[in-house]
Amino acid sequence: MAKTYSTRVLTFLMLISLMVVTLNLLSMAEAQNKKKAPRKDVPVVQGLSWSFYQKACPKVENIIRKELKKVFKRDIGLAAAILRIHFHDCFVQGCEASVLLAGSASGPGEQSSIPNLTLRQAAFVVINNLRALVQRKCGQVVSCSDILALAARDSVVLSGGPEYAVPLGRRDSLAFATPENTLANLPPPFANASALIKDFADRNLNVTDLVALSGGHTIGIAHCPSFTDRLYPNQDPTMNKFFANSLKTTCPTANSSNTQVLDIRSPDVFDNKYYVDLMNRQGLFTSDQDLFVDKRTRGIVESFAIDQNLFFDHFTVAMIKMSQMNVLTGTQGEIRSNCSARNTRSFMSVLEEDIEEAITIL
Ligand code: HEM
């Protein structure tokens, strides 16, 4: 009798714990879905969609996230490096992976341009490895530009930043920009807020987008020559004096090859401390610090410094907007099998393209 009673109690307890585990799993799955729910307040450009690879490569996002978790465990600095590559891709010709192309017989690629010399080679290797992993699982169906956009999102998330869904369906470019065009399209660190506001407006990014995207500088590093114009020969009076002295120790000469973290409060964490730095006049570049000097951007900096959720919300919107700039879709471009080189074309397809071009000219 006693035995039957205890067996019943045991069975009851097991059922309860099973229910608790199931409910937990369900709410975790729901939380994950919720986190990645597409934002309805950001328009998706024609040709992209929130569920582009649902049939052709449903696991693509899992593959990338899982691999990057391993990569960042070894070197979290690569998260910053990947985020910056995505920005440099989108601002030059659009988000079509042209920055990933190595130079060719036609000339040097975008990576040879001055601002891109400090992109980290190890990060390009990571993107190529992701490309190989995805291709092994799904075939040649996911573009390098989509892999880069997803890897940039995961760099943010795995450093502590906000989760967001990325519209997919980008195609890869057949050509890269010249080093001169690349230089002309990337804002320099000595730009002031007026120049940045104009540059971003030309790309349909508003003042809030500019301040939010600059928050990408909450992670990563810079080389001395990117900011020593603020130290030598004269010290920028808008810079905190103690901060300037510490930078002079890091960079004893203007051309020192040393590096400095961008956000002195939490260099590897994607948070809102970058804005706190700006309020304390500890922004590294003029392009950062001037956002707190200029009346049009100062209030936004302050609001992000006191409210991390507000920053995350605006950063997400601005990233989704930036990641859709001048994308190639449909039959434009190609899906590269190696992110560093365009696919080799057959003699016939070259001939067909030449005939098409000749007809267009006629
Ligand atoms: C607003 C105009 C911007 C300017 C003038 C600018 C300029 C720079 C410069 C000069 C560096 C340091 C390069 C070096 O010396 O190694 C840098 C690093 C970085 N930038 Fe920007 N940037 C801007 C916007 C952005 C945006 C929109 C993002 C991404 C959302 C971003 C993400 C990064 C990251 C993560 C790093 C660190 C890279 C690393 O650690 O390898 N930047 N940026």
UniProtKB/TrEMBL annotation:
GO terms for biological process: hydrogen peroxide catabolic process; response to oxidative stress. The keyword Disulfide bond applies. Residues 1-31 form the signal peptide. Pfam families: peroxidase (PF00141). Gene3D superfamilies: 1.10.520.10, Peroxidase, domain 2 (1.10.420.10). GO terms for molecular function: heme binding; lactoperoxidase activity; metal ion binding. One of its GO terms (cellular component) is extracellular region. Disulfide bonds join C57-C138, C90-C95, C144-C339, C224-C251. The record marks R84 as: Transition state stabilizer. It is found in: Secreted; Vacuole. Its EC number is 1.11.1.7. Ca(2+) 2 binds at T218, D263, D271. Heme b binds at H217. It comes from the Eukaryota. Ca(2+) 1 binds at D89, V92, G94, S98, E110. The active site is at H88 (proton acceptor). Its cofactor is heme b; Ca(2+). Residues 47-343 form the Plant heme peroxidase family profile domain. It catalyses: 2 a phenolic donor + H2O2 = 2 a phenolic radical donor + 2 H2O. The keyword Secreted applies. Belongs to the peroxidase family. Ascorbate peroxidase subfamily. Removal of H(2)O(2), oxidation of toxic reductants, biosynthesis and degradation of lignin, suberization, auxin catabolism, response to environmental stresses such as wounding, pathogen attack and oxidative stress. These functions might be dependent on each isozyme/isoform in each plant tissue. This is Peroxidase.
